């Protein structure tokens, strides 16, 4: 997809006008109303953000192009099922990140298949040890995730939006986040700290897990 490696949109939330998230919502609404050209400008603006998000997950440049393109295809397929147009930018980011994880997983699986299996001997049994988590560990992980996301939903909407975006990349770029939600970059760090403190208080009240 051309344009994926262009500079990120120069929107930091300080100036007048709608944010990238606002423009994404408008584009989706117009597309639903029959203007099939409405997504063109959004693709141009948001593709660099998606590409950098995908690359941050460890996807190589060529594969990142495919992941970003598949993300836009997914948006077209699911355009009518996105309940809230204002959430479309976050939908794109989450979809791109999940597709990036899948790309990395497939790449690792391919690498494993290309590795010669050990000899069938007592010292080198043919059966490779399973790396999947034990059932009990999987149940605990799912329960922790459930508690975490339930607790997140108890935060103010602004905190929920910020923490979700921060969690999308291993090294969150405040300029990306500022462009997405219209928050000044200078406020993101302190706001994030206050939101995390509120989330920790809610989690501590659960009392079932250690969240350190």
Plain-language structure description:
By secondary structure, this protein is mostly helical. It has 8 helices and no strands. It has helices at 20-32, 39-55, 61-78, 88-113, 135-152, 157-166, 174-181, 185-206. The chain starts with 19 loop residues before the first helix and ends in a 6-residue tail after the last helix. The relative contact order is 0.13.
What are the secondary-structure elements, in order, as H or E?
HHHHHHHH
- The radius of gyration over CA amounts to 21 Å
Please give the number of β-strands. Answer: 0
N-C termini distance? 41 Å
Indicate the overall shape.
Answer: globular
What proportion of the residues form beta strands (DSSP E)?
under 5%
As residue ranges, the low-confidence spans are 10-15
Average pLDDT rating: 77
The residue fraction in helices comes out at: 55-70%
Helix/strand-derived category reads: mainly alpha
Q: Quick one: biggest sheet?
A: none
Count every helix, treating DSSP H or I runs of 4 or more residues as helices.
8
Oligomer: single chain
Blueprint (SSEs and pairs):
Layout: H1 20-32, H2 39-55, H3 61-78, H4 88-113, H5 135-152, H6 157-166, H7 174-181, H8 185-206
Helix pairs in contact: 1-2, 2-3, 2-4, 3-4, 5-8, 6-8
């Amino acid at each position: 997809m051309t344009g994926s490696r262009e500079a990120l949109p120069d929107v930091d939330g300080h100036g007048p006008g709608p944010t990238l998230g606002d423009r994404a919502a408008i584009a989706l609404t117009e597309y639903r109303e029959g203007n099939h050209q409405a997504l063109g400008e959004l693709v141009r603006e948001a593709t660099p953000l998606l590409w950098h998000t995908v690359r941050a997950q460890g996807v190589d440049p060529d594969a990142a192009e495919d992941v970003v393109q598949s993300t836009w295809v997914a948006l077209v397929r699911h355009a009518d099922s996105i309940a809230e147009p204002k959430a479309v930018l976050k939908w794109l980011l989450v979809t791109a990140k999940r597709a990036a994880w899948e790309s990395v997983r497939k790449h690792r699986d391919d690498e494993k298949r290309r590795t010669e299996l050990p000899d069938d001997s007592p010292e080198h049994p043919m059966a490779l040890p399973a790396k999947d988590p034990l059932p009990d560990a999987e149940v605990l992980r799912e329960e922790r995730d459930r508690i975490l996301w339930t607790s997140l939903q108890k935060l103010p909407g602004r905190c929920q939006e910020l923490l979700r975006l921060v969690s999308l990349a291993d090294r969150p770029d405040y300029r990306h986040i500022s462009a997405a939600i219209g928050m000044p970059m200078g406020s993101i760090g302190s706001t994030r700290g206050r939101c995390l403190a509120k989330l920790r208080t809610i989690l501590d009240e659960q009392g079932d897990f250690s969240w350190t």
